[in-house]
Amino acid sequence: MISLMTGRPIFNTLMKLPAEFPVLAEPFKRAGWRTGAAVANSVLSDEHGFSRGFEDFSARELATLQWTANDVNRHAAEFLDKDDGRPFFLWLHYLDTHFPYTPPERPWHRTAKEVFTP
Question: Is the entire prediction scored with pTM above 0.70?
Answer without folding.
Answer: yes
